[in-house]
Amino acid sequence: MSRLAAVVFDVDGTLVDSERDGHRVAFNAAFEEAGLPDHWDIATYGRLLRITGGARRLASWFEQTGRSPDDARQLAERLHARKTAIMRDLIEDGKVQARPGVHRLLDELEAGGVPMHVATTGTRAWVEPLLDRVFGPRFQIVVTGTEVPDLKPSPAAYDEVLRLAGCPIDRTVAVEDSRNGVRAAVAAGLRVVAARNEYTRDDDLSGAALVVDGFEDPELVTWFQQ
Fold first, then answer.
1. Which molecular-function annotation in GO is an example for this chain (predicted)?
2. Is 6-17+97-225 in CATH node 3.90.1150.10?
């Protein structure tokens, strides 16, 4: 792996399978606390994931279900803050874990002396405690949607990691799971490895140099070793 300058990971759906049993659960708990009838089942939440950013996802949902744009935005902002707090509790309780095979890949990269970073559009309020609890001090630079508000497929988060790390683009690889994530990394000039999850199995990931069904796929480790 000596040819690699760095590997930059997405978080949601990539490092952790956090969407279905993390964020979705937190959104539904926030709805219930607020006395709202809204509820996102697994399939509905999968469709809503096409909209990046939790607050934007909420606002779009509220507009679709009959609220005015202003009411939708204000309610989304209020509920998103509560949802983030609930997500932090889920993380603290160990409800969000690494995807199978992730730690093995991180061990391989660490043993090879390859710096690892994070580029996510999730907010630092939950991303930081998640990374600390599940992965420890593995990642050198962590850029979140709190610092870079331009959400994927914008390459802004990746551009900021590259700027801070100073790593050459042609020797840096991104690891993603979704169409928007792959588009963001490719727009930043990076080669991308895409590890699909349950929600992104039908995404167009054609911009990736390698597409696998998960981190336990031996082709993924072989690709990095070569």
1. hydrolase activity
2. no
Cα gap 177→95, rounded to integer Å: 20
Full pLDDT tens readout for the chain, 226 residues: 668 999 999 999 999 989 988 999 999 999 999 999 999 999 999 999 888 889 999 999 999 999 999 999 999 999 999 999 999 999 999 999 999 999 999 999 999 999 999 999 999 999 999 999 999 999 999 999 999 999 999 999 999 999 999 999 999 999 999 999 999 999 999 999 999 999 999 999 999 999 999 999 999 989 988 8
Rounded to 5 degrees, φ, ψ at 53 are 90, 125
Alpha carbons 123 and 179: distance in angstroms, whole number = 20
204 flagged as catalytic: no
Q: Do domains 6-17+97-225 and 19-92 have the same CATH topology?
A: no
In CATH, the architecture of 19-92 is Orthogonal Bundle (1.10)
Confirm whether 132 is a catalytic residue.
no
Question: Domain ranges in the chain?
Answer: 6-17+97-225, 19-92
